[in-house]
Design goal:
heterodimer, A: 310 residues, 7-stranded parallel β-sheet, B: 189 residues, alpha+beta, 6-stranded antiparallel β-sheet, 4 helices, 45% strand
């Protein structure tokens, strides 16, 4: 018998905070990036993206749709380089994606709408910095997904959009139950999907001579090779931004996907996904282990580069 | 190569006529200058700075593509044709690296000098350079499943720019001062 969990699924944002501030306590400021300022490499970004920026073409022709919280009264205090401000969760993740891929078309959909996520022409990237939680013990086929999650899962399985999914902040393997006995079924439903990428957090941007470690809160790949094969990590430098959590890892990979898509205009979402996965670095991670770090740290520089040249 | 042969022929003819002109008057040829390198040679050196990693981390160094062991050599000569007139001529050997070539060039020109007064001289100098331009070669890059094998500007193969667009940045530079006219008036006091 098919069980419907729609009413019981708890959509949860994947930011780590001491306690989200109520928007009513603060004046929510708008993001303020889209206007006149030229993109600037920020300290929280990997230096590789700065090299990419110098050549332009960052995300042009690609649509990044951020499915997140754009309506609630909760704000998070942070600073991505434009001063301390309080924004909703989705406003932060959208801002991040826009900063990585300033020429991409950025769309927003509030995650509580439940409506099918529309795709644009050209390459589409979906950023999911939230999870869909319910008590563990069910299969994903038992979940009564909304049109929103059904469309996302369908796009990922059918290779119609790159889906960057924040791995989660419970310090468990993707697909496993949390200590409270809850499970992120959106994670589970995306396991094995051809154009889905789970994104975990490193404690900083890694390099060969200054390796990074998995952030204390980050979910990890686990022993399931289907997850390992689709798992990337990136640095989340919360000490610089005030924003912690895999919520802020996924938009980096979304932005990288857009940058990659603007270079390889004919590439499919699955090819973009595979390129990011196959060029990830393991030499920048302290004690690299596929069960923790999956394929390794995403490297936009290597993803853009040829395999061979003569 | 044909241009280079032509330049050598010009040099040979000029040297051969150094002893005397048709009327038996001595013809003087002077060496104006010899130089190693040129502005285009310097441009090639500037391209040699930098590099990037391939998808697997293998480093590429632009020096392998834009470096050379034999920089361009330029020789400029002046053959006096008569009082106040001279033929300027010279050649440059060209230069090549794996991904660029500076073609050999021939410099030809005239210089006319008129003594306007015992203390002043009016000089007109016209020169042109045939050949001598820089041409950058493209690379063939293999991007694997995502982009296939395609021509690309070697320097931009790892940049976010689309490979096909990078070809617009391939350098084709004419020799500097390809044609030049100088008019000067000198007063001695």
């Amino acid at each position: 018998m098919r069980m419907s969990f729609k009413a019981k699924l708890l959509a949860t944002l994947l930011a780590v905070v001491s306690g989200p501030a109520l928007a009513s306590d603060f004046v929510l400021q708008r993001e303020g990036l889209a206007t006149t300022s030229l993109p600037k490499v920020q300290s929280w970004m990997h230096s590789e993206i700065g090299d990419a920026w110098s050549q332009g073409y960052l995300g042009k022709g690609v649509t990044v749709t951020v499915v997140d919280d754009f309506r609630s009264g909760y704000g998070y205090s942070g600073n991505l380089g434009y001063g301390q401000r309080i924004l909703r969760h989705g406003e932060w993740t959208r801002l991040q994606a826009r900063m990585i891929a300033p020429q991409a078309t950025i769309r927003s959909q509030d995650y509580t709408t439940g409506r099918t996520v529309p795709l644009n022409t050209g390459l589409n990237v979906l950023n999911l910095s939230y999870g869909m939680f319910a008590p563990t013990g069910y299969s994903t086929s038992q979940i009564g997904w909304s049109a929103q999650e059904s469309s996302i899962i369908s796009y990922a399985r059918g290779g119609r959009a790159v889906v960057a999914k924040a791995a989660g902040n419970d310090g468990v393997a993707v697909g496993a139950a949390t200590r409270a006995g809850m499970q992120d079924y959106l994670n589970s439903a995306l396991v094995g999907a051809q154009s889905a990428i789970f994104v975990g957090a490193l404690d900083r941007n890694g390099s060969a001579d200054r390796k990074a470690a998995l952030a204390w809160y980050s979910n990890y790949a686990g022993t399931n090779t289907a997850v390992q094969d689709k798992f990337l990590v990136v640095g989340v430098e919360g000490s610089k931004t005030g924003l912690y959590g895999t919520s802020f890892a996924a938009p980096i990979v979304s932005g990288y996907s857009a940058v990659l898509g603007s270079k390889f205009r004919k590439a499919t979402p699955t090819q973009i996904t595979n390129q990011l996965l196959s060029t990830a670095r393991t030499d920048t991670i302290q004690g690299y282990n596929p069960a923790l770090h999956g394929r390794g740290e995403a490297s936009i520089a290597r993803a853009l580069a040829p395999q061979a040249i003569r | 190569m044909r241009l280079f042969r032509f330049a050598l022929l010009a040099l040979f003819l000029a040297m051969g006529s150094r002893a005397a002109d048709a009327e038996g008057r001595p013809v003087e040829t002077h060496l104006l200058g010899i130089a190693v390198g040129s502005e285009l040679s310097s441009l090639a050196r500037s391209l040699a700075r930098g590099g990037y990693e391939l998808a697997d981390g293998t480093p590429t160094d632009f020096r392998d593509w834009y470096g050379t062991d034999r920089p361009e050599l330029r020789i400029d000569m002046l053959t006096r044709l008569g009082p106040g007139a001279g033929l300027i001529w010279g050649l440059n050997t060209g230069e090549r690296g794996e991904k660029y070539r500076i073609h050999p060039g021939l410099k030809l020109g005239m210089i006319l000098q008129h003594e306007a007064s015992p203390r002043s001289t009016l000089t007109l100098q016209v020169t042109t350079v045939i050949g001598g331009g820089l041409r950058e070669e493209n690379c063939i890059a293999d991007y694997g499943e995502i982009g296939g094998v395609q021509p690309v500007n070697c320097r931009l193969a790892a940049a976010p720019i689309a490979p096909e667009d990078s070809l617009q940045h391939t350098l084709r530079v004419r020799a500097r001062e390809a044609s030049r006219i100088d008019l000067s008036y000198r007063v001695r006091f």
